[in-house]
Design a protein that fits this description.
alpha+beta; Endonuclease III, domain 1; Nucleoside Triphosphate Pyrophosphohydrolase; three-stranded mixed sheet; three-stranded antiparallel sheet; 14 helices
Length: 342
DNA sequence: AATCCGGGGGG
DNA sequence: CCCCCAGGATT
């Protein structure tokens, strides 16, 4: 693989991103801040650049260093993460910051192996940080690279079945500027060798690419057979007290939307359960909210009532004006909106 | 090796 | 509607 061509392309076409040090600045001796690179990489796990930008700017404004983030309450981190999804990332992010401060003097390890021992840092993220910050010559393999390499080698099986082979082939191509090479390949996948379009005529890997030679690069990567997405149904109960405050509670620490804020709901089942209202009141049906999770579709009937607060002591009452600052996942923001709040 | 875990943007 | 995104932890 023509790594020099990839780097030359990157020197001219690198995306300008808030967490990135440009190739020109790198040549001038400016090195990336591992804290900012780590934060961005965790946010970018299964998440698009466009969705991450505002969260990254907010986090780095609130917590400019890993020590600041480690000292922050977990609740505050979850509130700021709300809406970004995959909430285990936020808990691992905080745990990782604490570990860096407690076990490493506030300095991130400078090798992929050392980084991967930290919470929320796996094979991809450890390699990305080690390459981008320390130019460790390690293969950085993400979803973009899966697609670029599957096309380059005209891989006839789903990527999952050939991950080790792809990593080995990529490792042989990693140049001295391994950090810029990793970011170059990801930019290539995001802009030139995209999922539904391949601009082969301007691609630095044009000459060696087998899919381009075959003439149908979009045939790759070969997709695995998709599983069906089941439907689950349930009820959501929006309770307000005489002052108009809304009853909220914290979800269990494990499982779906762990430790995030919610309004009470029924169980979620294939067949819509009978509603069991958590308190007496004049319950009114507002409508249905549909939310798509990775592995199922959820349909919630939204109910509301004014109730007496007695017996509702597991959660708390929140004024409507404070809902924006709660750790509410998008699902429950939809529920509250359906009930006429926010 | 499979499964669980969000949400949004684009075709 | 569909797909896919700078994946990791758990089982």
């Amino acid at each position: 693989m023509d790594s020099p061509a990839v780097l030359a392309w990157y020197d001219r076409h690198a995306r300008d991103l808030p967490w990135r040090v440009s190739p020109g600045d790198r040549r001038a001796g400016i090195n990336p801040d591992p804290y900012r690179v780590w934060l961005s990489e965790v946010m970018l796990q299964q998440t698009t650049v466009a969705a991450v930008k505002s969260y990254f700017l907010r986090f780095t404004s609130l917590w400019p260093t890993v020590r600041d983030l480690a000292a922050a309450p977990l609740d505050a981190v979850l509130r700021e993460w709300a809406g970004l999804g995959y909430y285990a990332r936020a808990r691992n992010l905080h745990a990782c910051a604490e570990a860096v401060v407690r076990d490493h003097g506030g300095v991130f390890p400078d090798t992929a192996a050392g980084l991967q021992s930290l919470p929320g840092i796996g094979a991809y993220t450890s390699a990305a940080i080690a390459a981008i910050c320390f130019d460790e010559r390690v293969a950085v393999l993400d979803g973009n690279l899966d697609r670029v390499l599957a096309r380059y080698y005209a891989l006839e099986v789903p990527v999952r079945e050939a991950k080790d082979e792809l990593r080995g082939a990529l490792q042989l191509a990693v140049p001295e500027r391994s950090g810029d090479f990793a970011q170059a390949m990801m930019d290539l996948g995001a802009t030139i060798c995209a999922p539904r379009a391949a601009m082969c005529l301007v691609c630095p890997l044009h000459d060696g690419c087998e899919a381009r030679a075959e003439g149908d690069p979009l045939r790759y990567p070969v997709k695995p057979v998709k599983a069906e997405r089941p439907v689950r149904r349930g009820h959501a109960y929006v309770m307000r007290d005489a002052a108009g405050d809304v009853y909220l509670q914290t979800r269990p620490a494990k499982g779906l939307l762990a430790s995030m804020t919610e309004v009470p709901t029924s169980d979620w089942a294939a067949d819509l359960p009978e509603p069991h209202y958590p308190a007496e009141g004049n319950w009114r049906w507002h409508g249905q909210v549909v939310h798509i999770f990775t592995h199922f579709r959820l349909e919630l009937d939204v109910w509301s009532a004014v109730v007496a607060p007695e017996g509702l002591d597991a959660g708390w009452w929140a004024a409507p004006g404070t809902l924006a600052g709660e750790a509410l996942p998008t699902l429950f923001r939809k529920v509250l909106a359906e009930a006429g709040l926010s």
